[in-house]
Specification:
- The chain has helices at about 10-25, 35-45, 55-65, 90-115, 140-160, 185-200; strands spanning about 5, 25-30, 50, 70-75, 120-125, 165-170, 210, 215.
- The chain has about 220 residues and is an alpha/beta fold.
- It has a single domain (about 5-215), classed as NAD(P)-binding Rossmann-like Domain (Rossmann fold, 3-Layer(aba) Sandwich).
- The chain contains six helices and eight strands; from the N terminus they run βαβαβαβαβαβαββ.
- The termini are far apart.
Length: about 220
C-alpha cells in the first residue's frame, strides 16, 4: 500500500485531498500544525495524524521520523498574507518558509526513499497567482512564493528520474478559510487535480503545471 503525506490537511483543500487519497486505498498521513485538528480529520477518513509545522525545520525532521517512508508527498500548506510584496520583511520570510523552504526540506528528506524504490509522486499546491503568464498576483508575497515553488517543481523534476513525478497545480478559487465563502469551487473540486497527479501511472507527466487536469502556462 502506498503511503501519502499531505501537509496542512486538517481542513480545506488539504483535508479533501487526504480524503480522496484514502478513498483510493492509500495509507494517508494527515500533517497539521494543530495535531488535535489533524486527528479529527484522520479519524473521519481512517488516516493517521502527525504534528507538522512546515515553517519549522525541526518540526519537519521530527515529522519525517514519525511518518516513516513516504511514497506520495502533497505540499499543500500555505499562508496568504496581506498588503503588498515590499511592505513586510517578516511576512515575506514567513511566506517563503511555508511555501518554499518547507516543501524543499520535505522533498530533501523524503526523495531518497522514492529513489531507492524507483517510485514517487510529489504534488506542489501552487496557484495561478504564482504564474508569470497570469501576472504574479495576490497579496503580500503569496505570488512570489508560489512562483518560487513552481521553479522548485521544474528544477527538481529535471534532476529526478521519470519514475519520480514532480508536478505543480492550481486548485482555482476554493471555498476555504483562505479562499472565503464567495469562492466558486468546493474543496473537493479544488482537490481533484492534486489527487490525479498523486496517483499518476508510469506514463503520466512530470515537471508540469496543471489546472483541471490540463497544462497551464508558467
Amino acid at each position: 500500500m502506498r503511503r501519502a503525506l499531505v501537509t496542512g490537511s486538517n481542513r480545506g483543500i488539504g483535508a479533501a485531498i487526504a480524503q480522496g487519497l484514502a478513498a483510493q486505498g492509500l495509507e494517508v498521513i494527515v500533517g497539521s500544525r494543530d495535531l488535535a485538528a489533524g486527528q479529527t480529520i484522520a479519524n473521519q477518513i481512517g488516516a493517521r495524524a502527525i504534528a507538522l509545522d512546515v515553517s519549522d525545520p525541526a518540526s519537519i525532521s521530527q515529522a519525517v521520523a514519525d511518518a516513516g517512508p513516504i511514497d506520495v508527498l502533497i505540499n499543500n500548506a500555505g499562508i496568504l498574507g496581506q498588503g503588498s510584496v515590499l511592505d513586510d520583511p517578516v511576512e515575506f520570510s514567513a511566506s517563503m518558509d511555508v511555501m518554499v523552504r518547507g516543501p524543499y526540506l520535505l522533498m530533501h528528506h523524503l526523495v531518497p526513499h522514492m529513489q531507492t524504490q524507483n517510485y514517487g509522486r510529489i504534488v506542489n499546491l501552487s496557484s495561478g497567482w504564482g504564474s508569470f503568464a497570469e501576472g504574479l498576483q495576490g497579496p503580500a508575497s503569496y505570488g512570489v512564493a508560489k512562483a518560487a515553488l513552481n521553479a522548485l517543481t521544474v528544477a527538481s523534476a529535471a534532476t529526478l528520474p521519470g519514475t519520480i513525478k514532480v508536478n505543480a497545480m492550481c486548485p482555482g478559487w476554493v471555498r476555504t478559510r483562505m479562499g472565503g465563502s464567495g469562492a466558486t469551487r468546493s474543496p473537493e473540486q479544488g482537490a481533484d487535480t492534486a489527487i490525479w497527479l498523486a496517483t499518476l501511472d508510469q506514463n503520466g507527466p512530470t515537471g508540469g503545471f496543471f489546472r483541471d487536469r490540463a497544462p497551464i502556462a508558467w
